[in-house]
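step: validate -> pass
step: tokenize input -> pass
step: predict -> running
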Amino acid sequence: MRIWNSEHTFNHSWETVVTAAWRKYPNPHNPSVTGLDVVDRTVDSEGRLKSHRLMTTNWGIPGWVAKLIGIQEVCYASEHSIVDPESKSFSVKARNVTLANVLQVDEQLVYTQHPTDPEKTLLRQEATVTVSGLPLCSKLEQMVTDSMKNNAGKGRQAMEWVIDTVKKEAKELTAEAQKCMDNVLPKSL
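step: predict -> pass
step: emit ->
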């Protein structure tokens, strides 16, 4: 078993980062994630949004390798999340479904308002990788962990890309709304 963890501060408010996290995939920085489907979504009695989503990925495994080890090129992961607007916490727990009998990756991300600057957001990320029933388990665990380290940077770039996209969309929407208002209101007002 290998454990990897990381901490990162986004220079954006918690609300902005959470909005971006919901829209993170698909994105050009991590094209392996091809889709997210909502399985279940509820708001509990404490006002927390709880979601279960299924993530579709393409690990880029060559077709002949996938056939050799008996998997499809498309892989899946299950993601459970809780958004707590009261405590300004957004936690995400994900686990792979594909290959779970030999490779188990449990990942947790927690986005919280930065403790000393409310205009920033702290991300704590942890993953546990366990390989069993295969030769060279420790080596394979290290390879997966190293891959996660590399992908964490891509994930942060993707978040910044989504934040920029959301801000651009908001600016365009504001400009369009102003045009509409200018056309509706009489010029003498």
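step: describe -> The chain has one domain: 2-182.
step: cleanup -> pass
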